[in-house]
Amino acid sequence: MKLTRNSKISDGYNWVCRSKNHRGVKSSRSVRTGSLFEKSKISLPSWLTFIYRFSQGLHLRQIDMMQDRIARSSKTLSRMAKVLRKICTKAMKEYQKRRRQQMGGQQEFVVIDESNFRHKRKYGRGRASTTWRRRKWVFGMLGVKHNLRRPILRLVTRRSRNHLIPIIVKHVRPGTILISDEWRAYRGVLANMGYRHFTVNHSHWFVDPNTGAHSQHLERAWLSYKTRVWRLRGNRTEKMLKEHLALIEWTNWLGERHRRGVLGRLFRDIYHQFPV
């Protein structure tokens, strides 16, 4: 097929096949066929602008993007963001299958903690509905190695020992230094499993005066993660919250470590998931 200019269509080009097998009838198809943009009516320049803003982590205020004529409605912008989140989520799952997503070792210590990502009603008004049944606790593990930060975020039903310890064993290598608060789920267990476990009592101090252990790396990260999720209303459903948590992991594990940056990694994942 040959790429041909066509002023009658919005993209300006389409693929045309003039093979003799078509019996004199030209066969054509859109340049979007089989791509990320196949079912979208948004122009390609608008899509590329949105992908750039999405990858750079800019404040995706929908009113600003509508003023920039990327899309005409907030519903369309939400769908575009959802498509890109699914691409990042799928890429992260493939990475977990290949590399097992483990952290720790001699040069990297891991901070563990739990945080509440519950969706809050504005001013406490309105019906509570079934939102209280949603899983709201997120168990976080942050690998710290020099200036490198790698989070693993998992939505858990409860903060019990049976729910948290298997996640630690799966993702943290034995012999790693673990730092946590004195939550009873960790007490007296991690040291017996081959980890070097240090704790800090937040009722008395933020930095342990004897060992120097603290969890400020993850506490600061929680603020950044929650601000990002709440600003995009990513905690309204469990499914949406999982997508946003996976996007945070993708950014730190794959996006920022790519030689061409987050945008280059995003284009790479789009290419692999939509080969044209």
UniProtKB/TrEMBL annotation:
Pfam entry (one): DDE_Tnp_IS1595
The ISXO2-like transposase domain, residue ranges: 102-253
InterPro entries the UniProt entry points to: IS1016-like_transposase (IPR053164), Tnp_ISXO2-like (IPR024445)
Transmembrane domains' residue ranges: none
PANTHER family, sorted: DDE_TNP_IS1595 DOMAIN-CONTAINING PROTEIN (PTHR47163), SI:DKEY-17M8.2 (PTHR47163:SF2)
Protein name: Uncharacterized protein LOC109103683
Organism expressing this protein natively: Cyprinus carpio (Common carp)
